[in-house]
Amino acid sequence: MCDDGNTCCQTPSGGYGCCPLPNAECCSDHLHCCYQGTLCDLEHSKCVNKTHSLDWVERVAITQKAVVCPDQESECPDDTTCCEMPDGSWGCCPMKNAVCCEDKQHCCPQGTKCDLAHSMCVSAVYGPSPFWRKFAASRRKPSEKKADKTSTCPDDTTCCELETGTYGCCPMPKAVCCSDHFHCCPEGTTCDLIHSMCLSANGFTEMATKIPAVTALKPREKAVPCNETVACASGTTCCKTEEGSWACCPLPKAVCCEDHAHCCPKDTVCNLAAGTCDDLADLSASIPWLTKAVCCADHLHCCPHDTVCNLAASTCDSVNDKGPRFSVPLVKKIVALTLPSQNQNCDESSLCPTGTTCCRLTSGAWACCPMLQAVCCADQEHCCPQGYKCDLAQKTCVRPGLPSMPWFRKKSALSVTQPSDDNTPELADPVNRHMCDAHTSCPRDDTCCFMSNLGKWGCCPLPKAVCCTDGDHCCPVGYKCNEKKTSCTKAYHEIPWYTKQEARVTKGSEVLLGDKDVKCDSTTSCASGTTCCKLPTGQWGCCPLVKAVCCEDHEHCCPQGYTCNLEFGTCDKASSLLSVSLTQLQTHTDTHLEEEELCDASTRCPKTQTCCRLSDSTWACCPYREAVCCKDMKHCCPMGYSCDPEVQGCTKVSTATWWDNSL
Questions:
Q1: What does each C-alpha distance from 380 to 113, 368, 662 come to in angstroms?
Q2: Per-residue model confidence (pLDDT) at position 472
Q3: Which helix H or strand E contains 606, and what residues bound it?
Q4: Residues 122, 480: Cα–Cα separation, whole Å
Q5: Which numeric CATH code is attached to 145-212?
Q6: Which of the listed residues 58, 297, 559, 599 has the most CB atoms within 10 Å of its CB?
Q7: CB–CB of 288/403 below 8 Å?
Q8: DSSP 566
Q9: Angle 635-641-646 from CA coordinates, rounded to 5°
Q10: Cα dihedral sign for 328, 329, 335, 336?
Q11: Residues in domain Granulins (predicted)?
């Protein structure tokens, strides 16, 4: 179905597209159309009649709704919010009705507040969540010749008023509009309405009939050839499919990913592991990757925001030739919700706090997703916000047109026993917990910390932790709280600090937790996702890595597949000469550390090496000082050399072998 003033024309795929002209002539190439009263000249790509020749018209793409920013010159995709950037320009926050933070770099969801000191979005209902980073707004396209506030005419035509009071387009530049409001004549002539002629000193010509004004038309563009027989539409890129045929990536000069199924914008690299396009200009940013074009003739499309569906070419065309750019911080954990007076009953024996959603666990028991009207994922362990879908493969929450976000882990539901005399639900007694006071407890491997701003106890998810004076955070044993940087420091080490969770009261709000601890022996265990390693004292310590390698010094550990190099203080991989910094045990005693190069707050490389990005969130160490990190985020070259993908090496005067930089 096409809008009023358009004409339905068949597409090459057999569906229908919309020509933005009334009563138009559909061209036989199924891609273009011409004005009423003209014919398609396929050889010259024109619309012709007896007297004139005009550029033909491409089928109009479905227009993407946009939010116009206050400067009236910038716009953001639908379901986003305009926020001012530090340089005074406008950016787009990737959510509707968002809160723009005062630093002009971040934004928060509706109903939350920006906590600049802790780089968080805070809410009394949902607790803290990470900041969202804005992306640049698009410049609004300049209008073509305006007949009035709602009508435009193509280039090389003239706006003339019609009998109806609306405007039409005379198919010639600088034309003379005749007084009958129906005809027009070439520049330098006069209208002879009696004889229906255009008069001039050199003779006369036939009058031209005006055509109704239309919306802005894109200029005719050339196709992008893939080979001698296959081509993609202008503004797209040819990419090979798994079968060896050609497909069209809906971005100009795009990067074709090695999986032959995805593509990324220019100047980005494909991160197959994370499913993103990583922006080399801003290593903290990543872009959700785009799948190959899908035909939109049935008005169902998968075009991301900041692109439009091109029905004629069956592609998604980038509006600003850069494609959508999003930066979404990872959500690692959420603060537990305070149990309010009213609860949501999952069944007769289980309930969840108000503001949460009941979801089943794999065991068949009930759990609580920490948000209203949430979507329960099929793995029966996670959940996503309302309006999102669970992507089990990527372990994220996805929503068309918006960046993906990490999914949420459900909390075990409250178990209700027979009501007591005061009609308060009695919950299961705490098992293997230690008490903060007579009525409040924390899990066995947590530390009780008093939350001064709330006036009650909280649980730091670390054993024997240091409680920070701000009342909201804590650090591992042996570390100090750095209030200015919101981090934990120990000698040369600096790690992000931990957010405390609210402690649970024994009577009336006890939550049953699943036992997924890693057993060290019959009496000692480490939290899930860690590895038991012996300390120099003979006691057990917890390495914060899954299936880690415990080093012989009983103080450090390395990732799975690496070996401990105690001489250089690194983790080395047998199949590679690369190394990464040793990972400190949580209960490591204070020792002198050699000088290191800071990659970020929690990652280091030896001074003799160079930090290089593996993705937007991980680092590796190149075994050269002041090395050159290659754009593919997999390799590096010595100083003075450059990365040469054509020879798969480092080139200067001669070719040198490069080093695999993958972990």
A1: 31, 11, 33
A2: 77
A3: strand 603-606
A4: 25
A5: 2.10.25
A6: 58
A7: yes
A8: T
A9: 60
A10: positive
A11: 101-114, 178-191, 257-270, 296-309, 377-390, 468-481, 551-564, 630-643
Token pair 């036989």: residue: 28
The SS3 of residue 196 is coil
d(CA 433, CA 442) in angstroms, rounded, equals 6
> What dihedral do alpha carbons 334, 273, 529, 558 form, nearest 10°?
-130
Determine the Cα–Cα distance for residues 316 and 318; give it in Å rounded to an integer: 7
Which of helix, strand or coil describes residue 41? strand
Q: How many Å apart are CA 218 and CA 144, to the nearest integer?
A: 10
Alpha carbon 491 to its chain centroid, in Å, reads: 36
Identify the CA nearest to 180 among candidates 163, 164, 196: 163
Query: For the CA atoms of the chain, what is the radius of gyration?
Result: 32
Q: Identify the sign of the CA torsion 440, 441, 446, 447.
A: positive
DSSP string, 115-169: ETTTTEEE-TTT--EE-EE-EEPEEPPPP-EESSSS-EE-TT-EEEE-TTSSEEE
The strand pairing partners of 474, in sequence order, are: 467, 498
**Whole-number Å distance between alpha carbons of 130 and 333:** 10
Cα 409 to its chain centre, rounded Å, is 20
d(CA 192, CA 199) in angstroms, rounded, equals 7
Which amino acid would we find at residue 247? A
Would you kindly state where each structural domain of the chain is located, as residue ranges?
Answer: 7-58, 75-134, 145-212, 224-318, 343-415, 433-505, 516-593, 603-663
For residue 384 the two structure tokens come to: 């996503």
Residue 278 CA to residue 285 CA, distance in Å, equals 7
Give the whole-angstrom CA distance, residue 484 versus residue 362.
43
- Fold: same for 145-212 and 433-505: yes
Among 482, 349, 483, which residue's Cα sits nearest to residue 426? 349
pLDDT tops 50 at residue 338: no
As a dihedral over the C-alpha atoms of residue 580, residue 586, residue 590, residue 595, rounded to 10 degrees, the angle is: 20
With left for phi above 0 and alpha for psi between -120 and 50, is residue 31 left, alpha or beta?
alpha
What distance in Å separates the CA atoms of residue 507 and residue 430, rounded to the nearest whole number? 9
pLDDT, the chain, mean: 68
Confidence at residue 57, expressed as pLDDT on a 0 to 100 scale: 64
> How high is the pLDDT of residue 100?
92
pLDDT at 418 over 70: no
Non-local CB neighbours of 475 within 8 Å, separated by 6+ positions: 462, 465, 466, 468, 481, 488, 497, 498
pLDDT digits (tens, 9 = 90+) for 559-583: 777 777 776 565 655 433 232 333 2
Q: How far apart are the first and last CA of the chain?
A: 53
What's this model's pTM, rounded to 2 decimal places?
Answer: 0.21
Supply the CATH classification number for the domain 433-505.
2.10.25
For residue 536, what are its two tokens?
């120099």
- The 10s digit of each residue's pLDDT in 513-529 is 335 677 888 887 777 66
pLDDT in tens, 86-143: 888 888 887 888 899 998 888 888 888 888 888 888 887 666 777 777 677 777 654 4
Q: Give the HSE-up count for residue 444: Cα atoms under 13 Å, Cβ half-sphere.
A: 11
Please state whether beta strands 389-391 and 382-384 pair in parallel, antiparallel, or not at all (unpaired). unpaired
CATH of range 343-415; options 1.10.10, 3.30.70, 3.40.50, 2.10.25: 2.10.25
Query: How far apart are alpha carbons 598 and 34 in whole angstroms?
Result: 62
Taking the CB of residue 115, how many other CB atoms lie within 10 A of it?
15
